[in-house]
Write a structure and sequence with these properties.
15% strand, alpha/beta
């Protein structure tokens, strides 16, 4: 991927929609100069991308947009999370630093070396993380200004079997995991998600992944911004790891559209 290509994209929805579908981990693209700092050869990097990428989640979100009665807004990351992970805290608050997976990863999903351990994250944080965060903040501000509220729905996926990097991988791995936040996920939003995805199998809460994404300007401060994470187990809609999508994708997109329409 060349540097001239945009690293993220805001795709407008209906002016009256408060919903912002956030797709942060669906891409595999890595700019050539960033690739030089990654220690894996091309084959090993391809394997790592298979494991770390939330494959086809952008397609699930796109199909949900097509099915929804009121078109939600979408914010889509066009770069791999191996460039920067826009959902990490960029400082010592980030618990994933323990496994080398802060905003800039130095370790792989199998805890191998991805970048040198002494890599300075600041250049990549400044170049990619902060512009992304500013743009997401502006997108949320736009929904607040237009509708008086904003609902951020993260669209993720996770493998059917835990990977070594997971800090909380021993818990349940339901077909759909709903990630919540005590401040930003009101009970009615949580229950709307569980109802919408009930047709796709069992839903669980905060296992194997919990929490939500809210821009730091609003995080823990503004309850007009609500948020929820939808984590879809990959074997329900694709061939693992990194393979093609299957027929399960359509049902999941319909469930996501039903959630959008419930909000």
């Amino acid at each position: 991927m060349t540097e001239s290509a945009p690293s993220f994209e805001l795709r407008p929805g209906a002016a009256e929609s408060p919903v912002l579908l956030h797709v942060p981990h669906s891409a595999r693209a890595i700019p050539e100069d960033v690739r030089k700092g990654i220690l894996l050869d091309d084959t090993a990097l391809g394997v790592e991308l298979d494991h770390i990428t939330d494959a086809h989640t952008a397609r699930i979100a796109q199909r949900a947009v097509e099915l929804a009665g009121l078109t939600p807004w979408r914010f889509v990351n066009r770069l791999s999370r191996l460039v920067v992970d826009p959902e990490r805290f960029p400082d010592e608050r980030e618990e994933m630093l323990a496994v080398g997976m802060g905003a800039v990863y130095t370790r792989t999903t199998h805890r191998g070396e991805l970048r040198a351990a002494d890599t300075d994250p600041e250049p990549l944080v400044e170049r990619y993380f902060r512009p992304y965060a500013r743009a997401m903040t502006e997108a949320v501000a736009g929904r607040l200004a237009a509708t008086g509220r904003a609902v951020v729905i993260d669209v993720h996926s996770y493998p059917s079997r835990p990977l070594p990097y997971e800090l909380h991988g021993t818990g349940p791995r339901p077909p759909v995991c709903i990630g919540t936040d005590a401040f930003h996920t009101p009970p009615e939003l949580r229950e709307a998600a569980r109802k919408a995805f009930s047709a796709c199998g069992d839903t669980g809460l905060d296992s194997p992944f919990g929490g939500t994404y809210v821009p730091l300007e609003y995080y823990g401060r503004d309850q007009r911004v609500s948020a929820l994470m939808v984590e879809i187990r990959r074997d329900t809609y694709m061939t693992e790891p990194g393979g093609p999508a299957g027929p399960g994708l359509e049902g999941l997109a319909a469930a996501l559209a039903a959630l959008v329409d419930a909000l």
